[in-house]
Design a protein that fits this description.
The structure holds three protein chains of three kinds.
Chain A: E1 14-15, E2 20-25, E3 28-33, H1 35-41, E4 46-48, E5 55-56, E6 61-66, E7 71-75, E8 80-85, H2 88-91, H3 94-98, E9 107-111, H4 123-131
Antiparallel strand pairs in A: 1-2, 2-3, 3-9, 4-6, 5-8, 6-7, 8-9
Chain B: H1 17-20, H2 56-67, H3 90-96, H4 99-102, H5 114-131, E1 135-137, H6 143-160, E2 167-171, H7 177-184, E3 188-192, H8 202-208, E4 213-219, H9 231-240, E5 244-248, E6 268-270, E7 291-293, E8 305-309, E9 312-316, H10 333-369, E10 374-375, E11 385-388, H11 399-408, E12 415-416, E13 425-428, H12 436-455, H13 458-461, H14 474-479
Helix pairs in contact in B: 3-10, 5-10, 6-7, 8-9, 10-12
Chain C: H1 8-18, H2 48-60, E1 69-70, H3 83-89, H4 92-95, H5 107-124, E2 128-129, H6 136-151, E3 155-159, H7 164-174, E4 180-184, E5 203-209, H8 220-229, E6 233-238, E7 257-261, E8 277-281, E9 294-298, E10 304-308, H9 315-318, H10 331-369, E11 383-387, H11 392-401, E12 404-405, E13 408-409, E14 420-424, H12 431-441
Parallel strand pairs in C: 1-12, 3-4, 3-5, 5-6, 6-7
Antiparallel strand pairs in C: 2-8, 7-8, 9-10, 11-14, 13-14
Helix pairs in contact in C: 3-10, 5-10, 6-7, 10-12
Classes of the chains: A alpha+beta, B alpha/beta, C alpha/beta.
Chain lengths: ~130, ~475, ~450
């Protein structure tokens, strides 16, 4: 596992305590897991994502991510309706390891309340939390 | 001669079985055809089965070569914690292979199978005496199946009382199968942390036990190799709230002749015949997981049960409160024959001696290794002891590296990364059938590895080098599953 | 005791290292209230000589072939077991090893189980087969629970002609779940009645066994068509694995999940156990499978090898959310079956299955000629039902005195089938024995 200083935490996304990120993109929000989360899990071998059209509340489970010997649940950083999923992850879950903020994105939602984004951490707050 | 046990012999490569075949060969002697051929309608019949054809010699070479790629108890010490890899006596195999036992059809009319029924009845009685419980069913096919039987019994007992409870207490030192077995009965596991001494405190149980909790599943001795000393008080707390106590007896090899589970307050428990009672593990099974109960739970045992009627043994389903049937017939009979053979070969003194020596061996290893590896709980243990990689982490060496390096020294590694309460756990169970010499050699190997970790860590990172295969890529296997050829 | 290598001196020395004086001191931490107050009251130890004599006597008391001619099947079958199977399965590298969690030193078991998974998946016509389950009945129960997980529906329909013991096991597993089980009745031909499946909407699965408990071959496709239309799954299986060597596979008839009993493949009857639970499905549902799976991969040097894989489904990782609680399976039975399948081969299994059917057909027609009633006219494999004259039970007992077991009485399973018997014929039965049975029952 890497040191926190070796990991990437872009300023363009917001962070949740469960290590998901959310990035506004037009009317929708893109969601994935952070560089820290993928590093903790190690080689990701499988990602399970929700069905398009599902509406999920903040904190609700939207999927799971698996390494060889662990399963982690994925929690909604903000609530909303799922309008797209990154189906490329079915065949290439390693994209989450290689590029967690872009090719490794997981779902796109229409947020129930875009203002909920303000409840998430910014880069500095998230790094502070990680350093504990 | 090198003093290291591990070495290499002439290991032969071998392709997949279908790569060996040639159409037209056969490894099977067909019976003579003494009746006319009777065809089935064309639409019922298949023509698509793609199996290879091999000669008998092909088959012998193939499986003999594969067998040489395995390590086994017969070849050497196999100190897997919580698995009780003791020696599997050869006489047990002889008895299980007797034609009257191995070829007996399970639907024989009762007068034609009295011998098998009597053997099962005797084994049930012996297991009740060994555990201190009142009644036994041999039906469960393995340990986890015994747990399921126990949970179904608890569920049925509570239902009979008109109660439906939703939770079950499971300590962090229980076996991993426990939560999954409880979930099959709809129980939500309530985790409880063990205390700083590695055992469960009555207060921790008191804090979560309520009238919506069906009871507790407690592994005793637990997966840290420690006896749950407070079991009686814990049982009283659970009983006071109308709950039941389930004991996972997978580690019973530590306490034969010593502990009476009934006196400890246990209502229902299971044993693993493939651990404590010396039947072979067969590369993962078949096992046998008899479920043992106190008198008040006897009506709920699985059916059919062996009964005595008019001086003869029979099978009866006439137990209206029973949880029902758990397997097609009566359980893994030939595993039972082996366990019966073991119990009769040892007798009561021998069984008690087995536990004494198992505990002696584990404590001896604990004492000899504790200067070299971090001991998770520094107190006398039962049949197994749990170390961790804490001291080796400074050299960037993990438990996995230590385990893989042990292979080069000629040993099957201990259980690793379990129990979860000890990060980087290395769980060693020698069993009673290892001699002091064998154990000393094993301990010396682990001490040598601890030294290598400091001086030449790459030896561990690159291990194993002696076996036929080097470390295998589990990520590749899971990302692109290839489960059939 | 010959299994304990310790000399008294070694015990003393080891105790000294620990800092104790007596073996009993090792148990000082166990509260006396939990301890036994007396020695165990068990039979005193027997020598190997005594054990052999006593076990020989138990064995000799049992009614087994060839001394007895048994027309018994119904889930356990007397098939010939080649000596090569017995010899190879007895290799202790296979027998006395543990679950292959350490793949570098367990490649023998892993490759053999991978080959087993492959041969059985080709046999039953699905993509993926697990490393084994306890037996056919528990495999069927797991299949039913799997269908509930996949469809998120809680009603299951099962044929009334599934082995009655399998249905009993299914009921045991379903009892605490509250899931509903509906039985589909049989028709006059001895098969499950598709018309009995009137309300398929909302069903998680339909379960059929073929050949069924009466020996009749079921129209599995008819059931898979109906249930697929309703968005449910078709679960199909067998108690006699040898039938798959001749009959269309369950997978090719639309089964989504296949269960079965593999005892016929080189395993002795062993008074009912251990058997071999077979369970398989398509790639789409493989992550819902319970139990172990072996997969192919490579080692650091790029050589191909095998590991246990997709373990995140299992109890030791996913705990209460696992696809099952199964841990130990019947791996050695799967290995045995693999050796048997390799020895029999693709050509051999077809031939052996044909011999089984031909022999059963011979006995069936001989009984008909002798005036017995054959109540079901559906096609069959190696088991069929005959209705003997009323009062046949006395003849049955008389035949036992002559060491002939004239099949299995069906009345205890289906009260309306009075005097009906299920007769089973395998390749181990010869014409002389069958002629003798016909002679006796028509005398």
């Amino acid at each position: 596992m890497k040191d926190i200083s070796e990991l990437q935490f872009p300023e363009t996304v917001r962070y949740a305590a469960d290590h998901e990120w959310a990035r506004p993109d037009g009317d929708s929000v893109v969601i994935g897991i952070t560089d820290y989360a993928q590093d903790q899990l190690g080689d990701i071998v499988y990602v399970e994502l929700p069905k398009i059209g599902e509406t999920l509340a903040p904190g609700e489970v939207f999927g799971t991510v698996e390494s060889v010997k662990a399963v982690s649940e994925l929690f909604m950083p903000i609530g909303g309706e799922v309008i797209a999923i990154n189906s490329a992850l079915m065949d290439s879950p390693d994209q989450v390891n290689a590029d967690p903020y872009h090719d490794g994105w997981m779902i796109r939602i229409v947020p129930a309340q875009i203002s909920d984004m303000d409840l998430l951490m910014d880069q500095a707050a998230y790094i502070t939390m990680l350093k504990g | 001669m090198s003093d290291k046990l591990g070495t290499t012999g002439l290991i032969l490569n071998e392709p997949l079985v279908w790569e060996r075949g040639k159409p037209g060969r056969t490894g099977f002697s067909m019976p003579s055809e003494d009746v006319p051929f009777s065809p089935l309608a064309e639409e019922l019949v298949r023509n698509d089965l793609d199996w290879p054809d091999l000669s008998e010699v092909d088959v012998v070479r193939h499986y003999t070569r594969l067998s040489t790629w395995n390590v086994s108890v017969d070849a050497g010490m196999y100190p897997l914690g919580s698995c009780t890899m003791k020696y599997n006596p050869k006489t047990n195999e002889r008895q299980a292979g007797l034609v009257g036992l191995s070829d007996a059809h399970p639907l024989l009319p009762a007068p034609l199978c009295q011998g098998a029924l009597k053997l099962m009845a005797n084994l049930e009685a012996d297991l009740a005496e060994i555990t201190g419980m009142n009644a036994v069913s041999l039906q469960p096919a393995a340990g986890a199946h015994g747990e399921l039987a126990g949970m179904l019994i608890i569920h049925a007992c509570l239902e009979h009382r008109g109660e439906r409870r939703s939770k079950i207490i499971i300590p962090d030192t229980a076996h991993g199968t426990n939560p999954a077995s409880a979930a099959l009965c709809g129980y939500r596991p309530v985790p409880v942390k063990s205390g700083p001494n590695g055992i469960l405190s009555p207060d921790a149980v008191k804090a979560v036990m309520d009238r919506d909790t069906a009871g507790i599943m407690i592994t005793n001795p637990n997966t840290l190799g420690l006896f749950e000393e407070n079991i009686r008080e814990i049982s009283e707390i659970v009983h006071f709230m109308g709950g039941l106590v389930y004991a996972d007896g997978a580690n019973f090899n530590a306490v034969m002749g010593v502990v009476n589970m009934g006196c400890a307050g246990v209502d229902v428990m299971h044993l693993n015949l493939h651990k404590t009672f010396s039947t072979p593990h067969g590369g993962g099974g078949p096992g046998s997981g008899p479920v043992c109960v106190q008198k008040h739970l006897e009506p709920f045992l699985p059916v059919p049960r062996i009964v005595m009627q008019n001086g003869a043994y029979g099978l009866s389903r006439d137990f209206p409160l029973s949880i029902g049937r758990l397997v097609t017939f009566y359980g893994h009979f030939s595993v039972m024959v082996r366990a019966f053979s073991y119990i009769r070969s040892l007798g009561p003194e021998g069984l008690a001696r087995a536990s004494q020596l198992a505990v002696l061996n584990a404590n001896y290893i604990r004492e000899r290794l504790k200067a070299f590896y971090h001991l998770a709980y520094d107190r006398p243990c039962m049949h197994e002891c749990v170390f961790s990689d804490k001291k080796q982490q400074a050299h960037k060496i993990s438990t996995l590296d230590i385990a893989k390096r042990l292979m080069d020294y000629g040993y099957h590694p201990p259980t690793i990364y379990f129990p979860l309460v000890v990060p980087g756990a290395l769980m060693i169970e020698p069993t009673e059938t290892e001699s002091r010499d064998e154990i000393d050699q094993f301990v010396d190997a682990l001490i040598a590895i601890a030294k290598e970790a400091e001086e030449n860590p790459d030896l561990l990172h690159d291990a194993p080098k002696t076996p036929k295969m080097r470390r295998l890529n589990e990520v590749e296997a899971a990302r692109k599953p290839c489960l059939a050829g | 005791m010959r299994y304990f290598p310790h000399t008294p001196e070694e015990i003393d020395q080891m105790l000294q290292v620990i800092g104790l004086t007596r073996l009993e001191d090792l148990f000082a931490g166990i509260p006396t209230t939990c301890q036994k107050t007396r020695a165990m009251n068990l039979t005193a130890a027997w020598s190997e000589w005594e054990l052999n004599d006593l076990m020989d006597a138990v064995s000799d008391s049992m009614a087994v072939p060839p001394a007895y001619t048994a027309f018994l099947g119904a889930g356990r079958y007397h098939h010939h077991i080649p000596a090569v199977v017995t010899a190879l399965k007895g290799r202790t590298e296979f027998l006395t090893s543990y679950t292959p969690y350490q793949p570098e030193i367990s490649q023998g078991t892993l490759q053999a189980i991978y080959e087993y998974q492959t041969l059985v998946s080709r046999l039953v016509g699905v993509d993926v087969v697990t490393a084994s389950h306890y037996d056919g009945a528990t495999a069927m129960a797991e299949a039913a629970l799997m269908s509930v997980r996949i469809t998120q529906r809680t009603r299951i329909a099962a044929s009334a002609l599934i082995h009655p013991f399998y249905l009993q096991v299914l009921k045991t597993y379903l009892k605490p779940t509250g899931y509903q089980l509906i039985e589909i009745p049989r028709d006059a031909s001895g098969r499950t009645d598709p018309a009995g499946l009137s309300d398929v909407s909302g069903l998680a699965a339909v379960i059929v066994q073929s050949p069924n408990f009466l020996g009749c071959i079921e129209p599995v496709s008819a059931f898979s068509d109906v249930i697929h239309h309703a968005g449910g799954l078709c679960i199909s299986g067998f108690t006699e694995a040898l039938s798959c060597g001749l009959l269309k596979s369950p997978g090719s008839q639309g089964a989504d999940i296949v269960f079965g009993e593999g005892q016929s493949f080189g395993l002795p009857c062993a008074f009912g156990g251990p058997g071999l639970g077979m369970l398989g499905t398509s790639k789409a549902y493989m992550r819902n499978l319970p139990g172990r799976l072996v997969g192919k991969t490579h080692d650091l040097d790029g050589n191909s090898g095998f590991v246990l894989t997709l373990a995140t489904r299992e109890q030791h990782i996913r705990r209460e959310k696992a696809t099952s609680n199964i841990c130990s399976n019947n791996s050695h039975c799967a290995l045995t079956a693999a050796i048997y399948m390799a020895a029999l081969g693709g050509t051999g299994i077809r031939k052996l299955a044909e011999i089984n059917h031909s022999k059963a057909a011979y006995l069936k027609s001989a009984l008909k000629q002798a005036g017995m009633t054959l109540p079901f006219d559906a096609p069959f494999f190696n088991e069929f039902v005959v209705r003997f004259p009323d009062g046949f039970d006395r003849v049955y007992d008389r035949l036992i005195d002559q060491r002939i077991i004239a099949g299995l009485a069906l009345e205890p399973f289906y009260p309306e089938l009075k005097s009906h018997y299920l007769l089973t014929v395998t390749e181990t039965m010869n014409r002389k024995s069958m002629d003798a049975l016909v002679r006796e029952v028509s005398a």
